[in-house]
Amino acid sequence: MPLFPPRMSQERRIPRLPWFVLLLPAFLFSAASGVSAQEPEPQSMRADPDHVRIWNGFVDDAYQLHLQQLRDHPVRTESRLGGYAPGTSAGPEFYREVSYYDEASDRLLSRIRWENGEIHSIHGIQVFLHHDDGRVAVEYTATYLPEFRNAPIQTIVNLHHRTGDLRAFRQFDASGSRLYEQCRGTHEGESVWVEAEFFPVPDELRDTDLYQRCFANLDESPGNRLDPLHASNRVRQWPAYVPASRAELDRLIEQYDRQIPVTPLRGDLWVKRGDAYFLRGDFDRAIADYEAALDIDEALDGAWFGRGMALARKGKIREGIEDMNVYLERNPECSLGYTKRGIRYLWLGKPERAEADFREALRIDPNNAEAHSDLGVVLAQRQDYEAAVEHMEAAVRNDPTYQKAYHNLAMVHYLQDRPDKAMEAVDSALEIAPYARDSLMLKGEILKAVGEDDAARELQEAASTLPRRDWSERVPLTTQP
């Protein structure tokens, strides 16, 4: 066990450490040029389905945490190209590294290395949780090899603590194994560096005053912090990545078409391609991919969730709810899961069951805009308009881009004979989606209510030529079929 004496007259150089320590606490953000000396040597990894699922799931959850931080903070970004030595298969411009900073505090929230030439393919990710004073509390890191992407080659959870001038961290991997710990700084005027990489730590070290001063406030295990979403009520953006165009979506599917034959037992790739097919509206192919994923590993919760979404979109609403039931049994604190199941109960004509799910979603996450809006729909349908308005206003407050919530709010004001408020809300809906047929038709009804029949007729005639929308996950109140 490499360990420097508890006290030393000057800081000592760290000895040679194993590969998983050489990349800590940040995985590879030191080279100013962004070009490493050589491409990492491919390392074989035993095809353990649990390991593959857990470590790839860790990356997915770290990315979800990154998305949540972007939603919670205005950010600025810095980016640079980087890679490996010329002549290697990866090359010197293999990735684009983007650093995301909180614009107000300038705290580093996350860094992601995106592979150049691939859509939404993460080479490495690092996400930070901070104390209120700005110090890093928990750090999540994962990296893939340029090839052989069956699972990340490295996953790290670093727990940080500072006592006076001593800065310590304790490190685990995504499976919960304790890897390393280090403490550096100044104690009683002397520079110190204490580290350990074999556990349990021998009593003669653990019982020293300096070791206790360094590490006593760091937990022996990561606990729920092993999960990057432990503090987020598992609120997810689903799908995690929504391409900006149909062409980009097609390219993403082509990318999965190339990747899946290389690692056919990576169930998470089948799930992700299923999500992409869902976005394209190809529900049959989505369902087939989700079922292929479940054939590989029934513990892939994303496959149960995705198949539940797709089955309901095919009109098999009860079957979709059954899959959602499985997902929620395994993820009972997922606000999004209750929201989506509640929508399916609405489609099934069971508003009481829907209301129960929306309220549970809001218990878990009071800021869930979709659950607020859809609960407002249930309340409006039973003519509890004041309560409906409260929830719809909460929806647009929590998500000012939520077009359907503005539409629903306008509808409730219209039903309460409040044309001014109804017009304000429907105009907000149309600012977001100028060609939304249902909102244009509703605006026509509001214009009729204030005596502007000619303008209403002209608007509704123009709106009638627009295509009707397919089913939406965001449930609208409408004025006509």
TrEMBL record:
Keywords for the protein's UniProt record, in alphabetical order? Repeat, Signal, TPR repeat
The record's section on InterPro entries has:
TPR-like_helical_dom_sf, TPR_rpt, Ycf3
TPR repeat ranges are 267-300, 335-368, 369-402, 403-436
Signal peptide range in chain numbering: 1-37
The GO annotation for biological process reads:
receptor-mediated virion attachment to host cell
In Swiss-Prot or TrEMBL terms, this protein is called: Uncharacterized protein
- Organism the protein comes from: Thioalkalivibrio denitrificans
Q: Write down the SMART domains for this protein, in alphabetical order.
A: TPR
- Record's Gene3D superfamilies? Tetratricopeptide repeat domain
Residue span of region Disordered: 461-481
Q: Name one GO cellular component term.
A: cell outer membrane
Any one Pfam family here would be TPR_8
